[in-house]
Amino acid sequence: MGVTKRHIHSMRANQIADLAKILSNPARVAIIEYIGDCDGCLCQDISEKIRLSQPTTSQHLQVIKRAGVLKSQFKGKAQYYSIDARKWEQLQGLFYDFFEHTKSKMSEK
Amino acid sequence: MGVTKRHIHSMRANQIADLAKILSNPARVAIIEYIGDCDGCLCQDISEKIRLSQPTTSQHLQVIKRAGVLKSQFKGKAQYYSIDARKWEQLQGLFYDFFEHTKSKMSEK
DNA sequence: ATATTGTATCGTAATATAGCGATATTACAT
DNA sequence: ATGTAATATCGCTATATTACGATACAATAT
């Protein structure tokens, strides 16, 4: 019926899918790349850099933030975004484990 | 307008997004996990295992295959799917580089 | 030739996603 | 108090994705 059937899959499969979803849009990849560069970026600057409107950029930022990968801090009226290094490390570990686990199962055969 | 604007982003950002898309659905993650286990699986078996219909499973298999991550081989009427180890390694490398690159930029600041 | 079996494809419906303009909200400045 | 600037949210449209039943296709078996 067009809705992803989350409940039939394992927690792990859902978790990996949720995190992969963050990177499944090139605008979000570009945002993460840019924030890595400037460390403490404004939405407006990001918006200009990646050439998407401010509302669209803001929405992508929310998606990444909801997943815990972004930190943000108000300084006056401006909001400075940066990557949460701990979460980033954690995310990397999750993918790494998945890749390695799959490989180890292959080589057993 | 609801269409991802691929052309405004870098090749690299698009490439990462395309590959992340493979893992952005728990059914596909589950399929990859299962194929890793059995090495040479039938669509039907996978379908039963992940509890999605045969057509749905077949579609997901095509998505993963189109990205080059699956190999398949007919033996009579049956089609045996397995993971392309080289491509898997390559995929892992791409994600690894992205994570590391982002981290290195963060630590410079 | 016909039946059976395993896959793929078609058609369709429902939900999700991506994008933007308009508007609201918030904080600082004057 | 009013204006300005940065961000977030609302409302909308168009496209993409997910899922399934029905059906077509291909290879073996009878």
What multimeric state do the chains show? homodimer
- By CATH, the topology of chain A is Arc Repressor Mutant, subunit A
Number of helices of chain A: 5
Mean pLDDT of chain A: 93
Strand order within the widest sheet of chain A? 1-2
Structural class of chain A: mainly alpha
Give the full name of the CATH homologous superfamily of chain A.
Winged helix-like DNA-binding domain superfamily/Winged helix DNA-binding domain
* Beginning-to-end CA distance, first to last residue of chain A: 37 Å
**CATH level 1 name of chain A:** Mainly Alpha
How would you characterize the overall build of this protein?
Two copies of one chain form a homodimer. Chain A is mainly alpha-helical and 109 residues long. Chain A has a single domain, classed as Arc Repressor Mutant, subunit A, CATH 1.10.10.10. Chain A has helices spanning 11-22, 26-38, 43-50, 54-66, 85-108; strands at residues 70-75, 78-83. In chain A, strands 1-2 form a two-stranded antiparallel ribbon. In chain A, helix 3 crosses helix 4 (54-66). The longest helix of chain A is centred in the last third of the chain and has 24 residues, at 85-108. The N and C termini of chain A lie far apart (37 Å). The model of chain A has no long low-confidence stretch (mean pLDDT 93). At the A-B interface, helix 1, helix 2 and helix 5 of A face helix 1, helix 2 and helix 5 of B. Chain A binds a DNA duplex (30 and 30 nucleotides) through helix 4.
In short:
Two copies of one chain form a homodimer. The first copy, chain A, is mainly alpha-helical and 109 residues long.
